[in-house]
Specification:
The structure holds two protein chains of two kinds.
Chain A lengths: L8 E8 L8 H14 L16 E3 L8 E10 L6 H9 L6 E8 L7 H4 L2 E8 L12 H6 L5 E5 L5 E5 L4 E8 L4 E8 L8 H11 L10 E7 L1
Parallel strand pairs in A: 3-10
Antiparallel strand pairs in A: 1-3, 1-4, 2-3, 5-9, 5-10, 6-7, 8-9
Chain B lengths: L1 H8 L6 H4 L15 E7 L3 H4 L3 H11 L4 E7 L3 H10 L17 E5 L6 H10 L16 E5 L15 E3 L3 H17 L4 H9 L4 E2 L4 E5 L5 E6 L8 E2 L27 E4 L1 E2 L10 H4 L4 E2 L2 H15 L3 E5 L9 H12 L5 E3 L7 H10 L7 E6 L3 H6 L6 H13 L4 E8 L6 H21 L7 E8 L16 H14 L5 E5 L2 H11 L6 H9 L13 H10 L4 H6 L13 E2 L4 H13 L16 H4 L21
Parallel strand pairs in B: 1-2, 1-3, 3-4, 4-5, 9-19, 10-13, 13-14, 15-16, 16-17, 17-18
Antiparallel strand pairs in B: 5-6, 7-8, 11-12
Helix pairs in contact in B: 4-7, 6-18, 7-8, 10-11, 12-14, 14-15, 15-16, 18-19
The chains are: A alpha+beta, B alpha/beta.
């Protein structure tokens, strides 16, 4: 049996906006590791020949989606004051990435990916990208469906049909003034993960219209 | 533009290539700066961000109060499509301004197969393609430098100003002169004349080229007073004291070489006769270990990179490499920083070094004997023997590596099938040795990677023809046959790309039309096998009346004026002729590092001298001996 040393663990709430929203999840790991190095904040690494930083993320943010309050757990080699961690890391982060809050993580707290299983989104579609006006009560009609099936190509290239209705917790049309703005709460994380663009596409499909997913401006507002 | 750009970025692969905002990138206040320069890399972001020259010049220009430098890369074809469909001009990463808004666009010419990307970037940037069309209308000054500027002729029509040689001091002079010219309200023509007076600056429009009836060059004549008949390259006299960035831009998406680059020395005097870098970066100038350690600490601290690479043309030749590696591991190893060494020499010493820096033998070790027989290795002056190679691979197998890569070149001058047989013999010998020494026999692998010889300007082999595509294919097929064996892997490059490289690297001004036509036919990213299509070029050559074979297959004579003869590397043509003769006799020429000057003529032409850490120098032969 190897002795397991418990290292101090912190939960970092951060935003990923502007140019940083185009950093992929894999590149984000590298970016954060380097930011900790620049800030001379020693984080813990996995053992073995190819050590990697002991980060634990919530569901990865897709490329191009802005995150207002993302979550990352990090293990440090030594305890550090929350304020100091936030300040030193902020001074070493590229534009668009910023620490909002640091808190302690109890030893028995599950990883963010398992603990935080819902995500909030705001989706905006510009007026000239809207295929047409939505009928009254479109959101209610959509949510009254028992099953909402979407097809998506799997990693093997084959199309898979999936029911995403259980993953839609909430969906509201916030505004139809100068484009369309929607708010959603969707399942995210290791148990079930629903993509906002799939929901919006299905929503328009249900109303008899088609949208180009690439026109959607998506912001993840938080993880719950 | 922001809104439109965001819309586009949601539709392309890897939008991080275009979004900017990287750590250490510098975005200056546009309005308060006198001269705005864009560093244009004619390849994709991940390749361009691996280039040390970009980092050096970027940091240097941005440290001036009166100048700024921003970056622009060739957009990947999906991005180009989106930009053209939406009328979005090519823009810089920092301020997202169109290329057209800059005062100076500086292209770096790292390989000939990026020429169509240069044309494409000018076009996407809304800049007229030809220098002659930019004389009126306050267009940016289009400058180009880098290794391919040593034969600038094929792209002379597209470029206003070539910068020949090392950029640190030359670019400073260029910016100063540009500012002086603007302040004086000079016309474009007067500005070009002023710039032509700077050592290392070549302005093709100020020369007239005349040809012989057989197609070779007759004369290249300056058209005005004060324009040099021969342009001398620039070399930094004191590399140790030269500007070196303490901060480098850390790429947002993983670059090809995503690590700190520490240049330990410049130049290589081993004298391989096919090698252009070995001539154009002469003399060897080492940096002092103290300087390097200091620069390494700064770089690692300011970037957070977890790896530092000791770069140069031949790092195992750096006289202080062992103590430097030790010291770097001592200082930074505990923070999890790895040291890496590219370009290892073929010997046991180099394997020992690799052993120190690589705790895990996960990757393979690469050696480049270049030719299969001692005879041919002597012809190319590759100072490597079979014993050296066997000692190197033995040390590697004993140290725990089980995968070895061997690089060779085919189509070298005087090569026969016996030399190809020699490649196979060497590979088998290495495999044999591995069978005896490697415990995990199943993982033993010897890869033979073969490229095709391309004659390059300014080298000892500049006069030599390239093998025909058909002959190269025959040789590859023969090698494939000879290397059929368990544990041997054979890799080769398509000879079509090497053929085009030969045409462009030995080309003259008459190729401009063909380059433009190839671009109009859709040629882009010609260095990428997934995009390269020789038929686009074949049609372009035909429509512009060019016989490409003439350029690739021509055997020049010593008396011929070569298209690049008016550009000087500082190495005398007499030396190249003498070396070429010695090569055909199979006579080898030692490195001047060993203390004996070989009379290449450089030290008597340039101020820069060989320098070894600790202060040793080589006494150069006087003019009379040459």
């Amino acid at each position: 049996m190897r002795e397991v040393k418990l290292l101090p663990r912190y939960r970092i709430q951060y935003c990923k906006r502007g140019p940083a929203s185009y950093i992929s999840h894999l590149d984000l790991v590298r970016t954060l590791d380097r930011a900790f190095r620049r800030a001379a904040l020693p984080i813990a690494y996995s053992e073995g020949f190819n050590p990697h930083p002991r980060f634990s993320f919530a569901a990865p943010l897709p490329v191009g989606v802005e995150g207002l309050a993302e979550v990352l757990d990090v293990e440090m080699q030594e305890p550090i004051a929350h304020q100091e961690l936030a300040e030193r890391l902020n001074a070493a982060l590229p534009p668009g990435l910023a620490v909002l809050e640091v808190s302690d993580v109890q030893d028995n707290t599950p990883a963010p990916m398992a603990e935080l299983d819902e995500a909030g989104y705001i989706v905006h579609l510009d007026e000239h990208d809207l295929p047409g006006p939505l009928p009254d009560g479109a959101a209610r009609d959509f949510l009254s469906e028992e099953h909402i099936e979407v097809t998506r190509k799997g990693k093997d290239g084959r199309e898979k049909i999936r029911d995403i209705r259980p993953g839609i917790v909430k969906l509201d049309v916030l505004s139809q003034v100068s484009g369309l703005t929607m708010q959603m709460k969707l399942k995210s994380g290791s148990a079930m993960n629903v993509r906002p663009e799939d929901v919006v596409e299905a929503f328009f499909h249900h109303a008899g219209m088609a949208v180009d997913k690439a026109d959607l401006q998506i912001i993840r507002t938080g993880l719950f | 533009m922001e809104k439109q750009l965001e819309k586009i970025l949601r539709r392309v692969q890897k939008p991080g290539r275009y979004s900017g905002g990287e750590w250490n990138s510098i975005c200056k206040d546009w309005k308060s700066i006198d001269v705005k320069m864009a560093f244009a890399f004619p390849d994709v972001y991940e390749v361009g961000m691996s280039h040390l020259g970009l980092q050096i010049l970027y940091s240097m220009v941005n440290s001036r109060d009166d100048a700024l430098m921003e970056r622009v890369f060739a957009p990947w074809p999906d991005m180009e499509q989106q930009m053209r469909n939406n009328g979005l001009p090519l823009f810089s990463l920092e301020s997202r301004r169109p290329l057209r808004d800059f005062n100076i666009i500086g292209f770096t010419l790292q390989y000939e197969l990026s020429f169509t990307n240069i044309v494409n970037m000018l076009d996407l940037g809304g800049i007229p393609l030809h220098s002659a069309e930019r004389m009126e209308g306050d267009y940016p000054l289009v400058v180009a430098g880098g290794p391919c500027a040593f034969n600038p002729e094929p792209i002379a029509e597209f470029i206003d100003v070539f910068a020949i040689g090392e950029g640190e001091e030359l670019l400073t002079d260029l910016l100063d002169a540009y500012l002086a010219s603007r302040r004086g309200g000079e016309s474009r023509q007067d500005m070009l004349l002023r710039l032509a007076g700077i050592e290392g600056i070549y302005i093709p429009a100020l020369y007239r080229v005349e040809y012989n009836s057989l197609g070779t060059i007759n004369t290249v004549t300056p058209l005005s007073q004060g324009v040099p008949a021969r342009v001398q390259k620039r070399a930094v006299t004191n590399v140790d004291a030269a500007v070196f960035p303490t901060r480098m831009v850390v790429p947002a998406i993983e670059a090809v070489h995503d690590r700190a680059m520490l240049e330990v020395q410049r130049g290589c005097t081993r004298g391989c006769r096919f090698c252009q870098a070995g001539i154009i970066y002469r003399p060897v100038r080492e940096k002092e270990p103290d300087t390097l350690l200091h620069q390494a600490s700064n770089l690692l601290g300011s970037t957070g990179w977890e790896e530092i690479s000791l770069t140069s043309l031949s790092t195992s030749d750096f006289s202080q490499v062992t103590p430097l590696v030790h010291e770097l591991i001592n200082k930074h190893g505990s923070a999890g920083v790895n040291v890496s060494l590219p370009s290892l020499r073929v010997d046991a010493f180099s394997v020992d070094l690799a052993k120190e820096v690589q705790q895990v033998r996960r990757s393979s070790l690469t050696f480049a004997p270049e030719a299969g027989t001692q005879r041919l290795r002597d012809v190319i002056n590759k100072g490597v023997t079979e014993d050296d190679l066997m000692a190197a691979v033995e040390a590697a197998f004993m140290a725990g590596w089980h995968s070895i890569k061997l690089y060779f070149m085919i189509g070298l001058p005087t090569e026969t099938d016996e030399d190809l047989q020699g490649i196979a013999n060497l590979a088998r010998k290495v495999l044999e040795r591995g069978r005896r020494l490697v415990r995990a026999k199943g993982r033993l692998k010897v890869t033979v990677s073969v490229s095709s010889f391309v004659p390059k300007s300014h080298t000892v082999f500049q006069w030599e023809p390239q093998n025909s595509i058909a002959e190269l294919k025959r040789k590859q097929a023969l090698l494939r046959e000879l290397l059929r064996n368990r544990g041997l892997v054979f890799k080769w490059h398509d000879p079509e790309g090497s053929f085009l490289e030969a045409v462009l690297s030995r080309g003259d001004r008459r190729l401009a039309g063909a380059i433009e036509a190839a671009w109009r036919n859709g040629a882009r990213f010609d260095g990428w096998s997934e995009f390269f299509d020789l038929s686009k070029w074949t049609r372009a050559f035909a429509s512009s009346g060019i016989a490409p074979e003439w350029y690739a297959y021509k055997q020049y004579s010593y008396e011929d004026t070569l298209p690049w003869d008016h550009i000087s590397t500082g190495v005398s043509k007499n030396f190249l002729v003498r070396e070429h003769r010695r090569s055909l006799e199979g006579a080898i020429t030692p490195d001047c590092r060993d203390g004996r000057c070989q009379g290449c003529g450089l030290c008597v032409t340039l101020e820069a001298k060989p320098y070894f850490a600790g202060g040793e120098t080589v006494a150069s032969l006087s003019n009379t001996v040459l």
